[in-house]
Design brief:
Number of strands: 18
Strand content: 15-25%
CATH topology of the largest domain: Naphthalene 1,2-dioxygenase Alpha Subunit, Chain A, domain 1
Order of helices and strands: HHEEEEEEEEEEHEEHHHEEHEEEEHHH
Helix content: 25-40%
CATH class of the largest domain: Alpha Beta
Number of helices: 10
Radius of gyration: 23 Å
CATH superfamily of the largest domain: Naphthalene 1,2-dioxygenase Alpha Subunit, Chain A, domain 1
CATH architecture of the largest domain: Alpha-Beta Complex
Structural class: alpha+beta
Number of domains: 2
Shape: globular
Distance between the termini: 19 Å
Amino acid sequence: MDALQFPERRIESSRGLANAHYVSSDRYYEEREALLFSSWSGAAVASDVPNPGDAAPIDFAGMPLLLLRDHDGDVKVFQNTCRHRGMILVEEKCNLRGTIRCPYHSWCYNLDGSLRATPHVGGPGRNFDENVDRRNLGLFEVRSCVWRDIVFVNISGDAPEFDEYAKVIKDRWKEHEGKPLYAGPGSSSFEFDVACNWKLAVENYCESYHLPWIHPGLNSYSKLEDHYHIEEPGLFSGQGTLVYRQIVGEKGERFPDFDGLSEFWNEGAEYVALYPNVLLAVQRDHAYVLLLLPQGPGRTIERVQIYYPFEPETRPDLAQLMETNGKLWFGVLGEDLFVVEGMQRGRHGVMFDGGKFAPKMDGPNHLFHLWVADRMLARGRRMAAE
């Protein structure tokens, strides 16, 4: 690997990741294993499957997954592939009513993934075969955990326990921990289909340096100098502001606050990229998650869900304010799209050498680049030892 492949530890002398990390198909699949599959990655939100039996297919970086809620109300994730001939089991959101049925040969699975029925497997009218042991042919379950409604998955199965992975961010936001989160309706959920590598979306979210030029509306009251860096090496990085302004409706209505918050959160808010692909916002009266769902080296689905501290259906008086708030965030987050797409196109410039970090402004970005480098180097060492 060339000298510019990975950044240096000192930001003052470091350059960023080389172009291949953004445009190469080979590097994309290497990073899929080293960064996404071997970590706790955000794949969906649990509110996608609110009722027992609800199921939703997920394409996670090309991996077909099935999100479902079982009879006990627990969220599970399976590989969305029949154990017989590899057919996709569920094509679109539905309620399975207790049975996952393969549309090819009607092999049927329970909501716990166990294989229940194999019609005609032993010949016409014979539903058993001594060579087909149902006990060993259940669906492949993917290690998963739900936190702040986010469904995290660990495809490789060998990441540290989720509580260990999330301990520092949970401690940082302990005042928000355990508070009910209710997914907002309508405009509270939206997606962007972006022509960029998913890492560029992480990098843009991490830093506040671009606010005066890309988000002039926000910067008009929450200025660049009101922001601070959040830097937790190997885990997450981002930005916070000391000037958060609540949205106010035409009649002066506001969202209620999350219970038990300290005075800091009256005007403070934080925006963090939890490595690898979960972008989070915490504020006094609502929160959101932005999941980066890679579609290849040059395409990413950005999925946004906004949350409130109250059940939306119980507050019809706030319905319009929620609709306005969703449209507001759609506009703000949409302002970044031309930037990340422009950087993607720029990475095809063969003379670009990874760029020069601004030491006082790019610390959160530098930390993310170091995390990528460390995991890629660790993967290289493992492969060399095998």
